[in-house]
TrEMBL record:
GO terms for biological process: proton transmembrane transport. The lineage of its organism: Bacteria, Bacillati, Actinomycetota, Actinomycetes, Streptosporangiales. This is Peptidase. It is a multi-pass membrane protein. Keywords: Antiport, Cell membrane, Ion transport, Membrane, Transmembrane, Transmembrane helix, Transport. The keyword Amino-acid biosynthesis does not apply. The chain crosses the membrane at residues 32-53, 60-79, 91-111, 159-176, 183-202, 222-250, 271-291, 297-317, 329-351, 357-379. It comes from the Bacteria. It is found in: Cell membrane.
Amino acid sequence: MSAFLTVFACVLLLAVLLSSLAHRTILSTAALFLVAGFMLGDGVLGVVSISAADEAVGMLAELALFAVLFTDGMRLGWAELRSAWRLPGRALGWGLPLTLVITALGAHYLIGLGWIESLLIGAILAPTDPVFAAALVGNEKVPPRLRQLLNVESGINDGLALPFVMVFLAVAAGSADLHLGELGLELGLGVLIGVAVPWAAIKLEQTRWFSASTQYEPLNALAIGLLVLALGKATHGNLFLAAFAAGITVATFGRRQRESFEHFGELIAELFKLAALLVFGALITPALLGAVGWRGWLFAVLALVLARPVAIWISFLGSGLSVREQAAVAWFGPKGFASVVYGLIVLGSGIAAADEVFQLVAVTIVLSILLHSSTDIVVARWFDDEREVPAWYGAAGRVRARLRGKEPDGDGSP
């Protein structure tokens, strides 16, 4: 553990020092942690020795996903969802299940996995991660509806994919171990805790007897999250649905709590994300990358360039989005943190196909992180009409730029 903490601290410091450069270029902080984990893990240098069976791995995955789902849910109150539902609704209502099914078809027919394991892989790889589309979402020259679509979709689909992952994982564990009533109770209890605890805490603070000081306001939502986590653990309610429901509840009923916690919560979630990516990278070895064979790598490529693009194309027929906007949405279906943690959960589940599922998920995520994190700025520039006209562009280009008001005339006026 001391070796892991030392490595994490060093890589984190390096990531902080390079963060400004990464924001302007194709460098990716997430890719840095993934590559660092791979290089320092048992498969290469052996500095960090981590096994999927280690209790710390499961605990980190659990806490990381809880933190991320809590902060994701907090970005999306019901008011925001109602006002911006038309396009994200297509991506979530049609795009997510279609991506799941198309990915599952590839795993079944190309790899030869059983249907339940294939559907499990589809559910793990269906969510998208906004981190790898940061340059697109944060670029004001990109149409607002496109930025909103990607932001809302990636903020919600982690939580929507979770029940599918849990159900398919329970079925894959064997019919003897599957009790649908217990599973339904676990999921329902998680949602109940996630709604009731934040609502009661916020209403309590709104009474005349209680009020949080400015100094302690950021800790309000943190306390709510910790209480949801503790009650979920004690009652065996589903922690992840509880976290997502709690975040949405805080965003809906506690505007002040949401605003005070926003920056603090994102930093906490980011730390957990990076730590989980380091662990994930350490579990990926050269032997694992080679064990999937050409079919595994072909599956990973098709999962990125076929499954989501086809699903998005079908989902957005008649939506009014331009071809360029649809292409951007179709390409930016990056597999990121949620898929990493779902993969770690499956690896530690003990199901018969755990290793094979994890291997396929791992190579797809690795490929996605490398491709999507290095192309977000490139795709964002498709929408950048404000760029300088290069010298080699010629007189015609300069005339067009002048007519658009982008280049000054000889007297210095636009």
